[in-house]
Each structure stands twice: as structure tokens, then as C-alpha cells.
Amino acid sequence: MSSNDKSFFNENIVNVNKKVNMILFFTIPVPIIFAILSAVNIWIVPHLYSLTVFIYSTFFSLLYMFLIKKNVNQYFLMYMGIFVTSGFVFLLGYEGIITITISFAFPPFITCLYYNRKATRYTTIACFLLSCICYWFRSFRVPLVLGGVETPFFWFIKNIPGLIIEYIFLFILTDYMSNRTH
Fold this sequence. Notes:
By secondary structure, the protein is mostly helical. Helices cover 78% and strands 0% of the residues. The chain is built from 8 helices and no strands. Helix 2 packs antiparallel against helix 3, helix 3 runs antiparallel to helix 4 and helix 5 packs parallel to helix 8. It is flat, with a radius of gyration of 18 Å.
């Protein structure tokens, strides 16, 4: 790899890290919107859950911005940004209040912007595992389980094949994109 190539990729990491910083700041209003919608009885989101998401979003957005300003290692910031966005999506899906599946594709697509195939693969696999964990927690809260129609385990097993199919397509797409762009 020539020095021009290295320079291009290093500059790209810096630019994408700045975009990730903006994305992290856009997560802060999400729990505020939850609280507003709950206050007007459009959507019922527990206040503690909204507060937890708000603290997570605010803390990591400010920390990430601080680390960018201090010129911390850009590779560290790249992985931190991927981790924090994955964590945010995990928090959204963890309670089972919001049914999210496509949102788990967000961190792998962000990773594609870094032109790093290895990081994209790891991120996609990690998001798949986080999705499975969210589905497991959600399995205890779905109406069919709460109504006694199904057990949490049966609901989980019944829904995981669809998730696997989604992630197979996501893996193929993000792997192709990250390989093609590099």
C-alpha cells in the first residue's frame, strides 16, 4: 500500500469518526421523544428506561466528542464508535418496548464507511449476537407469552430463524460493500 493510500484511509477514518460523533448526538433526543410520547399517552415507555437511554446517549456522545477534540488514536475512536452505536441499538431492543430488527444493521453499515472488511465482519457478527440476546429478553414480554399461549423459549426458537436469514443477507451485503470499497 502506498503512502497516498495510507493517507487516504487515515483521513477517511478521521472523517467518518466525525460523522459518527454527529450520529451519537442525534441519539440524545430519542429518549426525550419517548418521554414526550409517554406524557401524552401515545406510547407507554417507562421513565426509568427513557432515563437510562438518555444517560447512555449523553455520556457516550460527550465522551466521544471529548476524545475527538483531544486527538485520541483514530482507530480507537473507530472501534469505540462502532461499539457505542451497537450498544445504543441494543438498549433500544433490550426492553422489548420497541420492536427493532433493521436498526441492528446500522452499526455494520457505519463500519462499511471505514473501508475495513474485517471490522465490518466482526461488527455484523456482534450485532447478530446482540440481536439474539435482545430476542431472548423480548421473549419474556411478548403478548403470546404473557397470555400463556406460548413459552418464552418456544417464542424465541420460533423467531430466531427469521433473524438468521436477515443476518445472512446483511452479512453478504456488508461484506461485499466493505470489500468493494476497499
